[in-house]
Write a structure and sequence with these properties.
The chain has 158 residues and is α/β, with parallel strands linked by helices. 30% of the residues lie in helices and 23% in strands. The chain has one domain: Glutaredoxin. The radius of gyration is 15 Å and the shape is globular.
Length: 158
């Protein structure tokens, strides 16, 4: 298995934010570990694993402010079924309260901007960014919670 080479986190390209009063920029989160859960609301792995894990981490770290949890709704298929109104209903029904950015698309583009910038393979994908703004891990599919906890703990201690 190839090792991951860390790189500076590209700024998120978001068309709209939900669950936050103002837009979020990664540069404003320096000093915190940032976890981004890239998902599609019609993705079974996202519904069963990715989003519940992100919600659990958001609840765990919300008070301390040491870890910022963001959702990235990055639609690369079934575009017509995954509009903002559908996403709002999804977030409401599952009670997801952490900030969710809708990945920006250029006209005629299938794969959204942030998904391209981070070279994500699909959804669910979890991106871990350290306190300096460096992408340290991109995990695709179901994530081992214990290993994730160790990785977050190491980054918090740096």
């Amino acid at each position: 298995m190839p090792t991951f080479t860390p790189y500076p986190a590209p700024e998120l390209q978001i068309s709209e934010w939900l669950n936050t009063p103002s837009p979020i920029r990664l540069s404003d989160l320096r000093g915190k570990v940032v976890l981004i859960e890239a998902f599609q609301m019609l993705c079974p792995g996202c519904i069963l694993h990715g989003m519940p894990l992100a919600a659990k981490l958001h609840a765990l770290f919300r008070e301390s402010g040491t870890v910022a949890v963001l959702g990235l709704h990055t639609v690369f298929e079934h575009h017509e079924a995954m509009r903002r109104a559908s996403l709002e209903a999804f977030l409401h029904e599952f009670r997801y309260t952490f900030p969710i950015g809708i990945d920006a698309h250029r006209d005629g583009q299938t794969v959204p901007e942030t998904m391209q910038a981070y070279k994500l393979r699909g959804t669910p994908s979890l991106v871990l960014i350290d306190k300096r703004g460096v992408v340290r891990e991109i995990l695709f599919g179901q994530v081992d919670e214990l290993a994730l906890g160790v990785a977050i703990g190491k980054m918090m201690a740096e």
